[in-house]
Amino acid sequence: MQHNHKNPLIEKPEINSDQIIGRIKEVLNIKTDTDLASSISVSKKTVSSWRRRNSIPLTIILLVSSMADSGTDYLLTGTDGRLRQRTQHKGQM
């Protein structure tokens, strides 16, 4: 028997590569895709491909997170995961 119920805990989040690339450039203090490509050792065509496919490799997110000392939550969603966790914990008390 199959259930057609969506589990909100495992629902696939909406990915917007343009926004993620924008946040990556922000935390690295970079203005252009060309400079971004150079700083993470990929070609500009690769960055363009990420935009076109709406997909960025996790290895790049982890690399940038390490380079910029920025959380992956911020890079992926634009929010600070620590703040969200603190807020959730307060509601549970």
Output the keywords.
93 residues; mainly alpha; 434 Repressor (Amino-terminal Domain); 6 helices; globular
Give an overview of the whole structure:
It is a single chain. This protein has helices at residues 17-27, 33-39, 44-53, 58-68, 72-77, 81-92. The protein is an all-alpha fold and 93 residues long. The chain has a single domain, classed as Orthogonal Bundle (434 Repressor (Amino-terminal Domain)). The N and C termini lie far apart (38 Å). 9% of the residues are buried. The model has no long low-confidence stretch (mean pLDDT 84).
List the helices and strands and how they pair.
Layout lengths: L16 H11 L5 H7 L4 H10 L4 H11 L3 H6 L3 H12 L1
How many beta-strand segments? 0
> Domains counted in the coordinates: how many?
1
- Averaging pLDDT over every residue, what do you get? 84
Question: What's the Cα radius of gyration?
Answer: 16 Å
Q: What characteristic shape results from the CA principal axes?
A: globular
Order of helices and strands: HHHHHH
Into which percent range does the helicity of residues fall?
55-70%
Short summary:
The protein is an all-alpha fold.
